[in-house]
Design brief:
- With 69 residues, this protein is an alpha+beta fold.
- The chain has one domain (2-68).
- The chain has helices at residues 2-18, 37-43, and strands at residues 28-34, 53-59.
- It has a two-stranded antiparallel sheet with strand order 1-2.
- The longest helix is centred in the first third of the chain and has 17 residues, at 2-18.
- It is elongated.
- The protein starts with a helix and ends in a 10-residue tail after the last strand.
């Protein structure tokens, strides 16, 4: 389970940083991400899971300062 979370977080951080320009303080941003094969195998318990994409929603606090991120 720890490996699953670590893989998922690494994937999401990479995607979130790529989509950072679309983030707005006090708002929500949704984007579709492709799940890496390693994560799909973990979710499928050794087999490749048929789920290949995930919808991610990022909520940005109203007082978020992009310059400090």
């Amino acid at each position: 389970m720890t490996r699953l979370l670590a893989t998922l977080l690494a994937s999401l951080v990479t995607t979130a940083s790529a989509a950072a320009s679309g983030l707005a303080p006090g708002g929500y941003t949704e984007f579709d991400v492709e799940l890496p094969a390693d994560l799909r195998r973990i979710a499928g318990r050794g087999e490749l899971s048929p789920v290949s994409r995930a919808l991610v929603t990022v909520a940005v606090p109203a007082d978020f300062d992009m310059a400090r991120a």
